[in-house]
Amino acid sequence: MGAQPLVDTYQRIHDNLRISVTDRCNIRCFYCMPEREVQFIERREILTYEEMARFARIAARLGVRKIRVTGGEPLVRRDLPKFIGMLAAIGGIEDLALTTNAVLLKEMARPLRDAGLRRINVHLDTLDRSRFLELTRRDDLPRVLEGIETALAAGFDSVKLNAVAVKGVTEPDIVPIARYCRERGMEARFIEFMPLDAQAIWDRTRVLLADDILGELAAAFGPLEPIPDPDPRAPASEYRYLDGGGTVGFIASVSRPFCLNCNRIRLTADGKLRYCLFAIEETDVKGLLRAGAPDADIEATIRKTVAGKWLGHEINSAKFVPPPRPMYAIGG
Fold this sequence. Notes:
332 residues; alpha/beta; two-stranded antiparallel ribbon; 30% helix; globular
């Protein structure tokens, strides 16, 4: 018999692992990182690929079936296709994906595909070059668009586009991004602005809500309808255009929390295991990995962490406390 699945006290089964390979990034989105004097983890504290792959193999034996590689920006880490190949070789892993800002994707798309990567999510908030520079403090939009086109030609199972929605900032970009994706057979995913920024600029009044975005899309393209029988553990609620123009997703962590169905655990680049993106506490596994601890000890640590998972974040209550680390240091 196989190992018992990773189940918490609320009977949520965890089969989805996110691995951050670095906290470094080559752009500076205003809602994520300061432009200068960013505090990065010392390189010696970052897990090696071999350490990360060992953790993933152990997690797979406990029922993990999906892995997403994140950062920071994962493509800035050297030899990433090597790591993708290590993950692709793990028995039981059925889905291997990556989130990237696509600045380096033109050069990396085919090596990643050849190594076993199957799905890519590209983070892109605007198609306007001047606005891209304003939002990211880098003039890299042409490289991003070339990277997307290269990925589309490389034969990935899917290439999706993630756009963060900030009220008073990104409204002009909603319809152009949706149109861009409709024209290319991609799915746009709009993500409500979350309190994970390094500069503490988040406020609920700055969240552009999924319902408002849905209204903008309906006005531009006609009615949309919810996709029936969705995966209850998927973070995105998905809709399809009634004119046949494809689908669009919303990750509405603020207005439509999906905590009760959460199936994810996270490994940070410096070897901390987190049961929630917003968790205040985290569990060190780097010490175990570097001390040569047996697999059974690491398995027990994973199980204990999952067992202690809270019911969910409390963004919409006065009790909410932002995590001590920003998004780029946790992993997207």
